[in-house]
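Dear colleague,

As promised, here are the two records you asked about, laid out in our usual form so they can be pasted straight into your sheet.

NAME FIELD: protein one
SEQUENCE, THEN STRUCTURE:
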Amino acid sequence: MTHSRTLGFDFGTTNSVFASTSGAGSDLVALEGPDGADPVFRSALCFWQDEDVAGGVGVAAGPWAIAEYLDFPEGSRFIQSFKTVAASASFEHAGVFERRYRFEELGRLFLARMGDRAGGAMDGSARRVIVGRPVEYAGGRPDEALARRRYDAMFAGLGAELHYVYEPLGAAFSYAARLSAPATILVADFGGGTSDFSLVRIAAPGTARRCEPLGHAGVGIAGDRFDQRIVDHLVLPLLGKGGHYRSFDKILEIPNGWFTDFSDWSRLALMRNRRTLAELDKLRRAALDPDAIGRMIAVIEGEMGYRLYHAVGALKRALSESKDAQFRFDGGGLRIEADVTRVDFEAWIAPDMVRIEAAVDRALAAADIEAAAIDRVFLTGGTSLTPRVRRMFVDRFGEDRIDSGDELTSIAHGLALIGQQDDIAAWTVA
C-alpha cells in the first residue's frame, strides 16, 4: 500500500534539497534560481533594509540570498550554516538590524522563501513529510530535545504528518534501488556540520520490507570543521590569534573564543552586533598588535563572511583535484595569497579524521557487524568528495566495495520513498 503525496526534506548545513512522491517513485523538486532551476538550494538567508517591504526588512534564501548579498554586501546581513546551532542551548536568537530571530523563525523564513521557488510543490498538501536529521547534532553539548522542538516549529504546516529519519537512512533507501541482490551496506553521509553512519541490510528486490536498519553513529564534525582548520592556519594568525593585550600591568594572551566564533560560519555573521563590535574595539585598543584586531573588525563590519567562505571552499575543491593550490582572499585590509598542499590540509584535519573513524567504529559496534561483513560502502554528502575522507574507507574496506554518487540529493530522494512505506515506524526516530 502506498500513501498519497509525501515530501522528503533534507535540511542541510550547506545545502537543502527536497523530493516529492505521488506514486511509487520519488522526484527531486527543481527550485527556481537566478541561473536556472536546480534541486540543490543553498541553506542561507540574506536580510536587508527595505522601506517597501512589510516590516522594513527584505529576506531572500538560497541562491537568491547570495545574489542579494553580492549586490550590496555592506548593507546586508548574510546568515549561513544556521542548522549548526539547532541543538545549541547557548543560541537564543540572531540579531538582524533591530530585530531578533529565534532558530525556528529563521527556519520558517527559509522554508517560506524556498517554497516560493518550488512551483507549489511545498504547498502543505502532502500527507506525510519526512525530515532528515543527523544521528548526532553538531555542537559541544547538543540538546536533542531542543533541536526536536525547534524542528517541529520550523516544519509545522508542511504536511498532515511530520516524521524524522536519520539522514544516512534516507541515502540507504535511495541507494537500495541500485542493488539487484541482497547486501549489508554501510552508508557514510558527510555534510557540512555532521558525519553520520548507518548500517542497513538490504533484501532482494520485491521483498515486502526491503531495508532493515541495524545500527547508527555520528559525530558533529564534517566540512565546516575542515573549513575552520583552513581559517585557523591561514587567516586567524593575521587577525590576532596567538597575540597579546595589556590588562593593567599584565600582558595576557587574547582569549581564543573570539577566533573560535570567527571561524564558525554559523556564528561569524552573528558577530556583527553593537556589543561584540564594541568589545572588539576595546580589545583592539589594548592589543599589542592593534592592526590585527582592526582587520578582524573590518571583515565583520564589511559583512565579508561569505567572501571568506567562498575562498575557503575554492581551496578545498582545488585540493580535491590537485596536490597543491593557492588560497586567495582580499578584503577588510586583509590580503592573503598562500600556497597550500594537500599534505598540509590533511595534516590540519588529522585530529578530525581520528574522531570520524571512531564514529564508524561505533556504528559497526552498534550493529554488531565486523568490517569484513560489509558488502558495500555508500559515500554521500558533499564532504565525501574530500580525498582524505574517501581514502579512509578505501584503506579499510577496499576500493571494490566503495560506491558513491548523488552526493547532494540521495538523502531527500530516499526520505520521500520512506514516506510511502507502511512500516514508517521502522525508520523514524522518536
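NAME FIELD: protein two
SEQUENCE, THEN STRUCTURE:
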Amino acid sequence: MSRILVAMSGGVDSSVAAALVAREGHEAVGVWMRLHDVADSYSEFKKSCCSLDAADDARRVAAQLGIPFYVMNLEREFDAGVLQPFLDAYLDGRTPSPCVDCNTYVKFGALLGRARHLYDCEAVATGHYARRVVGADGSARLARAVDTDKDQTYFLYGLRQDQLEHARFPLGELTKPEVRAIARELDLVTADKPESQEICFVPGGDYREALRERAGWQETPGPIIDGVGGERVGAHRGAAAYTVGQRQGLGVALGAPRYVSRIDPVTNTIQLGRREDLETHTFAVERATFVSGAAPSAADGSFRAEVRIRHRSAPIPATVWPATDDEPSRGGHWLVETDTPVWAAAPGQAAVFYDGDIVLGGGRISRPDVAVRPDGAALRASSPELRASA
C-alpha cells in the first residue's frame, strides 16, 4: 500500500476522500492548504473552504479518521498561478477560469511536488468528482465521473501525464448522495455541511471587489455601443466590470434583450448584441494541452471531439483544426468548428475536448468567429459581420 496525501478543504467531499483512502489500507496524510488571506479580513468568508473554520473542520475529520494532519502555506504559489492571472484576465477583457489554474498549478503542481519530496507520498488524492483510468499501454487517462451532475473534469483538463500518474480521485465512482451516506455512516463532522459555492478568494462573490482591493482597479466610465445599429446607447462603469454574455446591470432599454458581446479594454468600450448575435460555430483556442501529451490527429491534422465551453454546458460535437503559423497565439493554438452553435464563447473561458467520457485536453478561448481554417477552406460564418461578408 502507498502513502497518499489528501487535500482536505474541510468539506464533505474531501473528508470522504480521506476516509476512502484510509479504508483501502493506504497511509493517508491530511493537508489543508492556506491559499490566501481573504478570510482573515472578510467575516462572510469565515465558513468558506479557505477559512480557518474550514481548516478546523478538516483537522477534526482527520482526528476522527486517526490520520496525521498538517497545514501547508501555498499563498505564494496561489498568488502567482491563480490570483494574478484571474485579475489580469478581467483587466484584459477576458473571462478567467481560476479553478482550472488552481488544479493545474496548485493542487497537482505545487502540492503534488511537496507531497512527493517533503512527505514521501506516492500520490495526491482530492475530493474531485472525476476518474483516473489506466490504459493497456500503462498511460493514465482522465475520465468523467459516474455522477455526471457533479463531474468536475472540465476543471482538470490541464493535467499532464506526470501529474495524472500521481493523482487519485476516490469519489469518481460515487454519486453525491452516496458520499453523504458514507460521511453519515462514519459520523464525520462534515457529513451535513453545505457545499461552498463562491470563488474562495472573492469577497461577497463580487470579483470587482477583488479587482479594487488587489489590482487597484477604479471604475472609469466608457461608452456602450449597440452592435445592431452601431450607435452609442449608454455608458458603463468600467470595462472590467462586465463579461461576455452578461445581460443584467447594463442600464439600457432597447426594446429587446441585449447582452455583452464584445469588450475592448483598450478603448474602454462595451458592445452589445442580441442573443442570436452571440451564437457561433467557430472559435480559436490558445494555450491548449492534451492529457496524453499529444493531440489525436487525422491525416490533415484535425480531430473530432465533443467540446464544452462551460462547466455545465452540454458537450457539442466539433472538428478541431491546428492553427496556421500566422495565427496570433500564446502557444498551443487550435481552431474549433462546432456542428451546432455555441453561445457566448468568451475569450479566456476554458474549452475542453472530450471523446465520450475521456478528456482529451483543452485550452482557453482566444476569440470567436474564426473565418478560415488552416487549409484555406471557409469555416461556418457565425457572427453578423461574417454572415454579411459571406
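A couple of things worth noting about protein two: The first helix runs from residue 12 to 23. Confidence is low (pLDDT under 50) at residues 326-330, 381-390.

Best,
R.
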